[in-house]
Amino acid sequence: xxxxxxxxxxxxxxxxxxxxxxxxxxxxxxxxxxxxxxxxxxxxxxxxxxxxxxxxxxxxxxxxxxxxxxxxxxxxxxxxxxxxxxxxxxxxxxxxxxxxxxxxxxxxxxxxxxxxxxxxxxxxxxxxxxxxxxxxxxxxxxxxxxxxxxxxxxxxxxxxxxxxxxxxxxxxxxxxxxxxxxxxxxxxxxxxxxxxxxxxxxxxxxxxxxxxxxxxxxxxxxxxxxxxxxxxxxxxxxxxxxxxxxxxxxxxxxxxxxxxxxxxxxxxxxxxxxxxxxxxxxxxxxxxxxxxxxxxxxxxxxxxxxxxxxxxxxxxxxxxxxxxxxxxxxxxxxxxxxxxxxxxxxxxxxxxxxxxxxxxxxxxx
Length: 365
Prior knowledge:
Elements: E1 10-16, H1 25-35, H2 37-42, E2 45-51, H3 52-55, H4 74-85, E3 88-94, H5 102-109, E4 119-126, H6 132-144, E5 148-149, E6 154-157, H7 158-161, E7 162-163, E8 166-167, H8 171-196, E9 211-215, H9 222-240, H10 246-249, H11 252-258, E10 263-269, E11 272-282, E12 285-293, H12 302-312, E13 320-326, H13 330-338, E14 342-344, E15 353-359
Parallel strand pairs: 1-2, 1-3, 3-4, 4-5, 4-6, 12-13
Antiparallel strand pairs: 7-8, 9-10, 10-11, 11-12, 13-15, 14-15
């Protein structure tokens, strides 16, 4: 988990938003990065550059709405991970016919939650308007995605600024570029708690209002957990076309037995139990299971939130995190793959399930 400390590094994704042969976008991006390099170092920025031409996303081809976070294709999952890691964005864009390039609109439309509560700066270029109409159009999309466009922008008129395919020496433009980085850093740090923060036990912070997280205690009502489990695994039964799922058939005594050997986190919304997850250490492996969210609360990010909480609590010395889900549970598999898990072959995997694992780099806290 990343720190929310004011001194923690900021992860900035620079998006080169043109794919046209002979484009100027790479030269403009190179100028911006070089001009602001020292400012970025002072602001403790870690910069990642994505060229949408090299990324080569197809035209939006996901069957599910982006707001669900359920991605069928690996190209979407890879794009999701890259955007989710960023704390702020810089978009380098030309203007085409009074608007943004289609490739930029497409890249934005692929995702939803990954963009939220992060600032975005613009470096535009063009002829008469220096690309500013492209920026105005992009801002409408960015604000709908809950991004925060900053006030400072860089706008280059090609006739005044570009010489032999490169940005010429323009002291005023250089100063503006550095101001953009300084403002982007200030806004990004102010917004960090909205998208990096993870709650600890008992806090009410979460992906939606009214959540309360706690560990299941010895005197807590396990029957309520059993009811939630059965409700959640009805959807799993439909997805996998089978009723032979252990969570559907466990008795109250069965659940009372396993809560003694697993750590269980529960989440309530306005007093009602709406989610839970369990985890335990087996050697150097941290096993996560029974991740469940009430069907009427699905799609609010509670499942991803609970998964992150379970991962956070892996003990020192953990080398692998693993979990199982149904072979046909496409939404679950997509959620776990977005979180960095990979489908893994294992001889002990049940016939109706798949194993997903994640290798831990270093020690988890």
